[in-house]
Amino acid sequence: MHVDEWGEIHPSSAERPAEKKKPLTPDCLAAEGVGVPELADLGQKLSRYGTAKARNRAMAGYLVHRAGPYATDPLRKLSAALYDCASWLEFHHYLQSKRTVLANAVTCKKHLLCPFCAIRRGAKLLRNYHERALHLVDQFDFHSVVLTVKNGPDLVERHTHLKHAFKRLRTQGRDGYGVWANVKGAIWSTEFTKSDEGWHPHLHIIVAVPKGSPPIRYGQDSPLGKQWFELTGDSFIVHAQPIRPEGDDLAAGLCEVLKYAVKFSDLDLTDNLDAYLALKGKRLVQSSGCFYGLELPENDDLLDEPLSGPYLRWFFRYGSAGYQAAEA
C-alpha cells in the first residue's frame, strides 16, 4: 500500500518485494488511521500526523483570510478549532503488550477539513468494520464495487444525483430486481475529487453476498453497468472485483471504503472549504444489512480504547518542526 504526502492510502503491493510485505492486522490498521503497518513505529506515526497537522494549520490560516472582520464570524471560530486541534498528543505505551495508543488529545472533529481527524476517524471505523467482516467470512463472499456519476460544476447537485441513484439501486434490490437483489449487506462511503471537468463524487462499496454466489461483473454491457446507466442517465462507469477473505485483501478493501471523503492532496484550500460547507452534517459513511450499526457519531472523541496494565505516558507538542517531545 502507498501513502502519499497527505497520508492518503492507495492499496498497491506491486512496488514492494513480496518477502518484505507485512500482514495487515486490525491493530496496526487501527493504530495508524486507515494505516499501513510500516508506519506502526511511533516516530513515523508522528511524522505522518505532523504532515496532516501542517495542512490543518494551513486551512486554519486560510479561514482567517476568508472570514469577516468580527470575532464572532463562524469562520474565525472554525479556524480556532482547527488551530487547537491536535496541538498536543498524549500517548500511553503499555509495557506488557508493547502497544502504544493515543490516549488524549483535543480534536476539532472536522474530518472534511482536518486530515488529522480524518485519519483518526478512519482508524476507529476500520477497527469496527474489520472485526465485523471477520465474523462474516464463513457466511458471505465480499466484493468491492465503485459507482460513479458524470462530473459537474455543482457539488451538491452531483452528490444528490449520486445518492438518489444509489438509493434506487438498493430499493430495486430489496424488491428482488437487478444486481443488488443478492446483496445481504454493504458498507459504502462517498468520496469527492475535483478536476477541470468539475466535481466527481463516487461511491466506494463493499458488499456481502451469500457464499458461492456468481461474481459481480462490470463494464458497459454488464448487468450492473446497464442498470446503473438506467438509474443515472449519465454513467455506466462502474467497477467490481471479489475480495479474498484471507491475506491483505479484506483489510485493503476496507481501507479503500473508509479513507477520507475529501482527497486533501487533490484540492486547494478554497475547494476544500467549499466542499466542507456543502457537505458538513451529511452522512458520508453508511451501512446496511449484516454490516449495519457500526457508524461513528460525529462527536466521537477519536481516541484509542485504553488497554490494561502499567504504561508510560509520552507527551508531544506541535510546532514549526512538527511534533516534539514535551513535559506533561
Helix fraction by DSSP (H/I, runs of at least 4)? 25-40%
The total count of strands amounts to 11
Largest beta-sheet details: 5 strands, antiparallel
Cα gyration radius (Å):
20 Å
| Low-pLDDT regions | 1-39
Question: Care to describe what's here?
Answer:
It is a single chain. The protein has a 5-stranded antiparallel beta sheet, sandwiched between helices. A 4-stranded antiparallel beta sheet has the order 4-3-10-11. The chain has a two-stranded antiparallel sheet with strand order 1-2. Helix 2 (42-66) runs antiparallel to helix 3 and helix 4 (115-136) packs across helix 7 (249-258). The radius of gyration is 20 Å and the shape is flat. It contains 8 helices and 11 strands. The protein is of the alpha+beta class and 328 residues long.
Task: Tell me briefly what this model is.
Helix content is 35%, strand content 23%. It has 328 residues and is of the alpha+beta class.
Features:
five-stranded antiparallel beta sheet; 11 strands; flat; disordered N terminus; 328 residues
Helix and strand layout, with pairings?
Blueprint: E1 2-3, E2 9-10, H1 26-31, H2 42-66, H3 74-84, E3 88-94, E4 100-105, H4 115-136, E5 140-148, H5 155-174, E6 185-195, E7 198-210, H6 223-232, E8 238-243, H7 249-258, H8 269-279, E9 285-289, E10 311-319, E11 322-326
Antiparallel strand pairs: 1-2, 3-4, 3-10, 5-7, 5-8, 6-7, 6-9, 10-11
Helix pairs in contact: 2-3, 4-7, 5-6
